[in-house]
Amino acid sequence: MTEQKKRRNWGGYAASIPFFLLVIFFLIAPLSNMVRESFISPESGAVTLANYLDVLSKPIYLASIRNSLYLTFISTVVGLVLSFIAAMATAQATKNLSSKFLSILNMVANFAGLPLAFAFIILVGKSGVLIEILDQFGIPLLDDFNIYSSQGLLLVFVYFQIPLGTLVLLPSFQSIRKEWKESAALMKASPFQFWWHIGIPVLLPSLADTFSMLFANALTAYATPYMMISTNYPLLPIKITSMFTGEMAQQQELGSALSITMMLIMLLVIFLCNMVKKIFYKGGNS
């Protein structure tokens, strides 16, 4: 039996070799090279912190970080609230209606990138279909709306956050037991009181995980904002890409520093979300 177990263990290790090779060559190696280049001076090749000092001091890079954080945080918070409402409505709907809504969510969740930007330009661009229809009825509701501004980007970001957040949150609503709602109703608690005191605390770990996922999803978005505003509104992913694929002189060292900065921001958000979960669990245990 011992020999058979050893053979099974070695067989499992051998089967996992392709996975570890993929991790090494497509994750660890590129990340190690990026970290190394971020500390290299492009002029002399010496080890330096000048790339990070440029990132944290030059206005163009600070603006890209600030704009990305603004769009990411606002779209994540709004998307999380709307996703919570949509997931709650889906969990309480009939099986037939819930199945149809999930089919629509799966389709919309994959509608991103260039097609999404093109769709919004067609709908609410300067001569968009929706704007023309409203003008025909004399409704100047979207006359001052500019899809090629930060407000337009925020609308698009919120749009593609909702399907992903809903799909991620929906399984966690199964942890809300029907008996809890019935007990709260017997104690004459309103639906708001139930969700505020029972539902949301139970779902808090899932909400924290969903927040970190939506944050990373918005922070790294590239294709949609690039098609809509190109370089007119500096964003961190667009600025990073221009460092590696720009028509002018490439600045891979500075691009690596920007990439590491973006990674550190995401790691900080994930760390804070995990801290919230740990505080919540400690409070529940006490």
CATH superfamily: MetI-like
Let me know the average pLDDT.
84
Counted up, domains total 1
Q: Total number of β-strand segments?
A: 0
Query: If you consult CATH, what is the topology?
Result: MetI-like fold
CATH class: Mainly Alpha
Radius of gyration: 24 Å
Shape: globular
Report the major sheet.
none
Helical/strand content category: mainly alpha
Proportion of strand residues: under 5%
Estimate the helix proportion, in percent: over 70%
Roughly how many Å apart are the termini?
46 Å
SSE arrangement, N to C: HHHHHHHHHHHHH
Stretches with pLDDT under 50, minimum 5 residues: none
Q: CATH architecture, please?
A: Orthogonal Bundle
Count of separate DSSP helical elements: 13
